[in-house]
Specification:
Helix content: over 70%
Largest sheet: none
Radius of gyration: 31 Å
Mean pLDDT: 81
Number of strands: 0
Distance between the termini: 86 Å
């Protein structure tokens, strides 16, 4: 007899002696199920993160596409010219343009508030533009809030969030400049 035959006989004897009962099989199946579920959950989490990033990129593209449309650029330019000339935007002549811009920024501000549009979009030039146009439309928004207290509420939320971010950033700059001395 060779070693292989002896090991096969030995293995078969062990298997005959040790018969698994139903509870042991249940435990093994439960452990395998738990491991498989954990692995699948982890990959599901990774896929959901990837999908969220992809969706956010699509939303960012849409924001810039709508924001850079010729119509909206012209309307914003007209409103900013009024502001530069110190004209009040309380006249009814510009209500339609002001409402259009307020609705545009209110919609995208709502997307920021609920996490569909990342805030980092507004950390640069876009944030400066939002702050500037909000200051132009502030009196118009106050006028509209007499009838509707929540008018452009999300737009104001984004304005305040950008303003707070810029204030914190400027404080950090001074702090780091102080540390360098």
């Amino acid at each position: 007899m060779n070693k292989r035959m002896l090991s096969e006989i030995h293995a078969s004897c062990i298997l005959k002696e040790k018969k698994m009962d139903f509870k042991e099989i249940q435990i093994i199946v439960s452990i395998l199920t738990a491991i498989t579920t954990s692995i699948l959950s982890f990959f599901g989490y990774l896929i959901s993160k990837w999908n969220k990033k992809k969706t956010q990129l699509d939303v960012i593209k849409e924001y810039y596409k709508e924001g850079d449309s010729k119509e909206l650029v012209q309307i914003r330019k007209n409103l900013l010219n009024l502001y530069d000339n110190n004209n009040a935007i309380l006249s009814n002549e510009f209500d339609e343009d002001a409402a259009f811009v307020c609705n545009f920024f209110n919609k995208w501000s709502m997307m920021v508030r609920y996490g569909n549009l990342p805030f980092y979009i507004f950390k640069g030039a876009s944030g400066h533009g939002v702050r500037k146009i909000y200051n132009v439309l502030k009196r118009y928004i106050e006028k509209r809030r007499k009838d509707n207290p929540l008018y452009a509420n999300d737009f104001e939320y984004l304005y305040n969030k950008i303003k707070n971010y810029n204030q914190k950033r400027s404080k950090r700059k001074w702090y780091f400049l102080w540390l360098k001395q």
